[in-house]
Amino acid sequence: MKSSARLKFFTLIELLIVISIIGIIISISFVSFSNVRQKGRDTKRIADIKLIQKSLEDYYRDEGSYPATLTPGQSLIGSSSNTIYMQIIPQ
């Protein structure tokens, strides 16, 4: 009778091992997810910098000089041509 009852339940060691494995898997996936988010933010920053660079090159080509200031969240508009080089400067 005791042997059949023993087969129906997990031992404490088995439960601890399963919980440990689940914890390891969760921690690995969390680190991987954090790295993916970081790479996504880096890719967005690089794209923003390239867009700013191109807009400034166009501005310089048309105006003959670079703008005195750039304010994040504002537009980049040419002073003499009223050309909009960038709708919103990224932050």
TrEMBL record:
SUPFAM superfamilies: Pili subunits. It is found in: Membrane. Its main location: membrane. GO terms for cellular component: membrane; type II protein secretion system complex. InterPro entries: Bac_GSPG_pilin (IPR000983), N_methyl_site (IPR012902), Pilin-like (IPR045584). The chain crosses the membrane at residues 12-36. It is a single-pass membrane protein. Coiled coil: none annotated. One of its GO terms (biological process) is protein secretion by the type II secretion system. Keywords: Membrane, Methylation, Transmembrane, Transmembrane helix. This is Type II secretion system protein GspG C-terminal domain-containing protein. It comes from Candidatus Falkowbacteria bacterium CG_4_10_14_0_8_um_filter_41_36.
